Automatic annotation (TrEMBL):
The keyword Transmembrane helix applies. Its main location: membrane. The chain crosses the membrane at residues 213-234, 246-263, 283-304, 316-338, 370-391, 412-434, 440-459. GO terms for biological process: adenylate cyclase-activating G protein-coupled receptor signaling pathway; cell surface receptor signaling pathway. Coiled coil: none annotated. One of its GO terms (cellular component) is plasma membrane. PANTHER family: ADHESION G PROTEIN-COUPLED RECEPTOR G11-RELATED, ADHESION G-PROTEIN COUPLED RECEPTOR. It is found in: Membrane. GO terms for molecular function: G protein-coupled receptor activity. This is Adhesion G-protein coupled receptor G2-like. The keyword Metal-binding does not apply. It comes from Megalops atlanticus (Tarpon). Keywords: Disulfide bond, Membrane, Transmembrane, Transmembrane helix.
């Protein structure tokens, strides 16, 4: 029904020329089209053009007003059409020009169900395309109580099945409870009102830049993760430690996540619903599995670093594999049964959109994905802080016997830990207010290149069991290896000393 109303409104706007032809010698006419109220104003060829002001009176009628400021107490909104707009219309229409201003009180909602001031849309039509004005079209609303809402003047070009509002070409001014929209073109206009916590769309340039960074970073991550997996499964001949095996599971989850993400948009463009639901489910599974392996990495580091004992839990690797891979699968199966995987649109502030395959229900996304990661982040960030504290403490203890580590190596240590524990995903929490755009860029760079950072960590820290000497205590960062010198004695070491040597040999950070 709303689509039929929208089509009839657009058709009526296109037929204004026929109404102008019937006006004869009159230069002003009131126009009613259902619930749409408007006014037509002619600018004859023989008259010099000038700026025209229209006011919407208390009786819900449009009228020509001489002065916007003088009429402020009599009308609640005004529209001012500049002289430049009339001159452009005359050039295109062989010397004659007209302008129509209409009030649409019940236009259909957009995809985001945006809130519009007074639920009113104003359309301005001159029978031709008028744009790039230096002397703007001004819409003025007086005595507006906006509360704590964020207001913005936006426009829509009238295309599509639903309004697609954009800020492009319009400036918003607010002073003394008066809203003024200064726009450089003619079309449908509205004042959108967002809650203080609402997020506006990204600009097209930001979306393109972030997309390029993501594709480059994910491509590099896939390559280096693939190299690490190749080295582990095909080239490694020595027995690997539990730490390395757990890390390889994280590599597998991240490799699958990058692969499905890079192929998601192309599958969405194919408009194949079955393929879209499949890729969305696999990508969701790999993302939840990645979160799970972040938590398992932190738990494993806790056992090694804080408890400082050899991990002898029965079937430890099997239990971690079940914990890392099984729960995400159950979640994805439930969401798949509920039919919540579908096409979604990512909109920009100029009305453009990018389509991908993901969860269509925002509540499921926030509860399952955001909620789960908050729990994982709280645990991994705690382990990260404790680990950094331990490393700094060991560096102070071994200052006389170990070489001072360079700042570059310390930086790679921190990056390796952040990548291994998934701490960098926490930048998504800062995507609000003034930090929103910078946090998106930091989040995209760090997480797109996460596989590359993990490969560096794997390459520097991976050693077969038994490679370390009994007197070497090795950190998993691969960049900090303080050595404890054990005093040699001709007599047999005590049992207590033997236990210390054994711990130093078998414990890996």
């Amino acid at each position: 029904m709303s689509q039929l109303i929208l089509n009839s409104h657009r058709q009526a706007m296109k037929s204004l020329g026929s109404i102008v032809a019937q006006m004869g010698s009159d230069d002003t006419a009131a126009v009613t089209m259902g619930d749409v109220e408007g006014i037509l104003k002619l600018s004859p060829k023989e008259q010099e053009t000038e700026e025209v002001h229209f006011g919407f009176t208390a009786s819900n009628d449009w009228a020509v007003v001489e002065n916007v400021f003088a009429a402020a107490g009599e009308v609640r909104k005004t529209v001012s059409v500049s002289k430049e707009a009339f001159e452009k219309a005359q050039l295109i229409n062989n010397g004659s020009a007209y302008v129509g201003v209409f009030n649409f009180p019940s236009l259909s909602k957009d995809e985001k169900n945006s809130t519009i001031l007074n639920n009113e849309v104003i359309a301005i039509e001159m029978g031709t395309d008028i744009s790039n004005l230096t002397d703007t079209i001004n819409l003025r609303y007086d005595q507006v109580d906006k509360g704590d809402a964020i207001i913005s003047c936006q426009s829509w070009d009238g295309t599509g099945t639903k309004p697609n509002w954009t800020k492009d070409g319009c400036e918003t001014l607010f002073r003394d409870n008066t809203i003024t929209c200064q726009c450089k073109h003619l079309t449908f206009f509205a004042i959108l009102m967002d809650s203080p916590g609402a997020q506006s769309n990204l600009s097209t340039s930001d979306v393109k830049t972030l997309t390029h960074i993501t594709y480059i970073g994910c491509g590099m991550s896939m390559f280096f993760l693939g190299v690490a997996l190749f080295m582990h499964f095909l080239l490694s001949r020595a027995k690997t430690s539990k730490t390395t095996k757990i890390l390889i599971n994280l590599f597998l989850a991240l490799f699958l996540l990058n692969l499905t993400f890079l192929s998601n948009e192309s599958i969405a463009k194919s408009q194949n619903l079955s393929a879209c639901r499949f890729i969305a489910g696999v990508m969701h599974y790999s993302m939840l599995s990645t979160f799970s392996w972040f938590a398992i990495q932190a738990f494993h580091l806790y056992l090694q670093l804080i408890k400082v004992f050899n991990i002898n839990i029965q079937r430890y690797l099997l239990k971690t594999a079940i914990a890392g891979w099984s729960p995400p699968g159950l979640v994805v199966i439930v969401i798949f049964i509920l039919n919540e995987y579908d096409f979604i649109d990512i909109n920009t502030d100029d009305g453009a959109s990018v389509q991908m395959c993901w969860i269509k229900n925002h509540y499921i996304h926030y509860i399952v994905n955001i909620g789960y990661y908050v729990l994982v982040f709280a645990f991994t960030f705690f382990i990260f802080i404790v680990t950094v504290h331990k490393i700094m403490h060991l560096k102070k203890m071994t200052k006389g016997t170990a070489k001072q580590q360079s700042k570059t190596k310390d930086m790679f240590t921190m990056l390796g830990l952040c990548a291994m524990l998934g701490v960098t995903w926490g930048f998504a929490f800062f995507s609000h207010g003034a930090f929103r755009i910078p946090s998106y860029y930091i989040f995209t760079v760090l997480n797109s290149f996460q596989g590359f950072f993990l490969f560096l960590y794997y390459y520097k820290s991976n050693r077969p069991i038994g490679e370390e000497s009994p007197s070497t205590f090795t950190s998993s960062s691969g960049s900090f290896k303080p050595k404890f010198k054990l005093n040699k004695s001709k007599s047999s070491p005590s049992n207590h000393t033997q236990r210390k040597i054994h711990t130093a040999r078998t414990t890996e950070f």
